[in-house]
Amino acid sequence: MKSITIKGSERESVGKSATKAARNAGMVPCVLYGGDQPVHFIAEEKAFKSLVYTPNVHTVAVELASGKNYEAILQDIQFDPVSDKILHIDFYQLDPKKEITMEVPVKVVGNSKGVMAGGVLRLNQRKLKVRALPSNLPDFVEADITELEMGNKLYITKIPTNNFKLLHPDNTVVAQVRISRAAMKAAQEAAKAEKGAKGKKK
Questions:
Q1: Which helix (DSSP H) or strand (DSSP E) does residue 131 occupy?
Q2: pTM above 0.70, yes or no
């Protein structure tokens, strides 16, 4: 999985006034959990654009001015309900020897036979929950729809996994090809025409 670097500074004070001052200066208060002690730090708000405002997922390399470095994932984020500005971010420190659970996007590949015949593709799951060691976390999960005929469903059991586990029931539908209204109407008209032709032959 790709990594994004966030550079920040450890916070000496975590009180309300210090937090407000940090936000007024364009900084985002953050906390890193998962280690021996929580690490409080601040980073520029613009540093989070590539991490927060994207459908992709990344691990995070937290580099502090003190020289301390951490590998982490974004765990929780709070936005201002009025301005949508980032108020606070929680990170979770990664251990290279411990598995982690994350949601990663689904990437559709292939050309569905059903779609080419006039069906409509529906992506039921845009993200899937995976569990893996940090080094094995995928950037995305591939859903190959090539063999999907009209009315078919792609179940999670057909999704290939490589050094990671999918944490969903076997009956989870990832994608399906529905019969479009146009295709349904065409089929009904064809059936009527065939029935009429048979009636004339009699």
A1: strand 127-132
A2: yes
